[in-house]
Design goal:
The complex is a heterodimer of chains A (about 110) and B (about 110).
Chain A lengths: L3 E4 L2 E4 L5 E7 L5 E8 L3 E10 L2 E4 L6 E7 L2 E6 L8 E8 L8 E3 L3 E5 L1
Parallel strand pairs in A: 2-11
Antiparallel strand pairs in A: 1-3, 3-8, 4-5, 4-9, 5-6, 7-8, 9-10, 9-11
Chain B lengths: L1 E6 L2 E5 L4 E9 L4 E7 L5 E7 L5 E3 L5 E5 L4 E6 L8 E8 L7 E2 L3 E6 L1
Parallel strand pairs in B: 2-11
Antiparallel strand pairs in B: 1-3, 3-8, 4-5, 4-9, 6-7, 7-8, 9-10, 9-11
Classes of the chains: A mainly beta (about 110), B mainly beta (about 110).
């Protein structure tokens, strides 16, 4: 079984709809992240969480919100989706106890906003 | 502040040829450096990482990378390309305890038969 799972894998929605993307992990890591990937732009950090009570904005948080329901679960919400939020979204986890904070990624959610 | 520059958004090689993907970084603290690979319709998979131990780092699938502080580089190489190496490759840098993993824009590797 995959260590980091994301649901749904694909989603098509309309402008103005509320969307939630979910991430679960079985790696036992405290740190979790949400990124979006756009062609030619690499990955950009949306939000990150170092533990259940810690939520921080990344470089492109406008239009997004998150919820850390448990150590293993981190959800990303688009309150009112717009077409320029069409992208590939990745969840990642890391464990700084290894000294390097290496991040491990889920398979991604492809979101299309019409 | 930290940043990553990947030279060449698209690299094309013949099967059996040397693969060289270039990555230069800037970091105000001793960096950790990573290469990730993304196969079509998949997530990012860790290929290898530099953590200040050996400067030559060996990864999965025959890839390796050499950390050169004087050149601020961390280029990825593989002696002989295989068709299955076709993917997008991302270099990333983090500054130790700094949470932030900064990615390059990626290099798409095409392998021709």
């Amino acid at each position: 079984d995959a260590d980091v799972t994301q649901t749904p894998r694909n989603r098509i929605t309309k402008t103005g709809k509320r969307i939630m993307l979910e991430c679960s992990q079985t790696k036992g890591h405290d740190r979790m992240y949400w990124y979006r990937q756009d062609p030619g732009l690499g990955l950009r950090l949306i939000y990150y969480s170092f533990d259940v009570k810690d939520i921080n904005k990344g470089e492109i948080s406008d239009g997004y919100s998150v919820s850390r329901q448990a150590q293993a679960k981190f959800s990303l919400s688009l309150e009112s989706a717009i077409p320029n939020q069409t992208a590939l979204y990745f969840c990642a986890t890391s464990d700084f106890t290894d000294g390097t904070d290496t991040q491990y990624f889920g398979p991604g959610t492809r979101l299309t906003v019409l | 502040a930290q940043s990553v520059t990947q030279l060449g958004s698209h690299v094309s090689v013949s099967e059996g040829a040397l693969v060289l993907l270039r990555c230069n970084y800037s970091s105000s603290v001793p960096p950790y450096l990573f290469w990730y690979v993304q196969y079509p319709n998949q997530g990012l998979q860790l290929l290898l990482k530099y953590t200040s131990a050996a400067t030559l780092v060996k990864g999965i699938n025959g890839f390796e990378a050499e950390f050169k502080k004087s050149e601020t580089s961390f280029h990825l190489t593989k002696p002989s390309a295989h068709m299955s190496d076709a993917a997008e490759y991302f270099c990333a840098v983090s500054g130790g305890s700094n949470y932030k993993l900064t990615f390059g824009k990626g290099t798409l590797l095409t392998v021709n038969p």
